Structure formats: C-alpha cells, structure tokens
Amino acid sequence: MELVDRFLSCSVKTSHYYLAERENFQLLSIAAFYVSVKTMERAVFGSDLLVLVSNGVYTKEEIERTEEGEPTGNYLVTI
C-alpha cells in the first residue's frame, strides 16, 4: 500500500481519478502489488495470475499498461 500512497500523493488530478471510482483504485492496487512482488519476492508470476485473481475484471494488457506507466484514460500512470 506504500506504493499506492506515494503514487496518490504525487498529483491531485491523478489521485482524484483513482479515488473517484472503485474500479480505477482496484486496478492501481493490482498494479502496485505486481510491482512489489516483482521487486521484492523470489517467486515469479505473470500478470495472467492477477487477471485470474481479479476474476477477469482487468485484462493482462490493462494491468501491464498501468504497471509500465503508459496512459490510461486521460492520465499518465506511473508507479
């Protein structure tokens, strides 16, 4: 959650986007979890697992795009 908190504190406009709708916040949280596991854990898993965990609500492309910092909607996402 520290990554999410840091990210949301960077920009009022971006934080409003992710806090205004639950789906956007959940996608941000999944991407932050993915970054955390990739950098802190020995276990390796792909974004396909996160698609399954989210019950298919988010696609592999959405998760990876958010994690990589590519535009999502009208906002640039960088974690």
How would you portray this structure in words?
The protein is mainly alpha-helical and 79 residues long. It has five helices and two strands. A hairpin with a 2-residue loop joins strand 1 (71-72) and strand 2 (75-76). The model is unreliable at 74-79 (pLDDT under 50).
| Lateral strand order in the biggest sheet | 1-2
Cα-based radius of gyration, to the nearest Å: 12 Å
How much is the average pLDDT?
81
The secondary structure category is mainly alpha
Helix content: 55-70%
H/E series, N to C? HHHHHEE
Distance between the termini: 11 Å
Instruction: Flag low-confidence runs.
Output: 74-79
Number of helices: 5
Strand content: 5-15%
Q: What's the number of extended β-strand segments?
A: 2
Tell me, what's the shape? globular
Task: Please describe the structure with a list of short key phrases separated by commas or semicolons.
mainly alpha, 65% helix, globular, disordered C terminus
Task: Give a quick summary of the entry.
The chain is mainly α and 79 residues long.
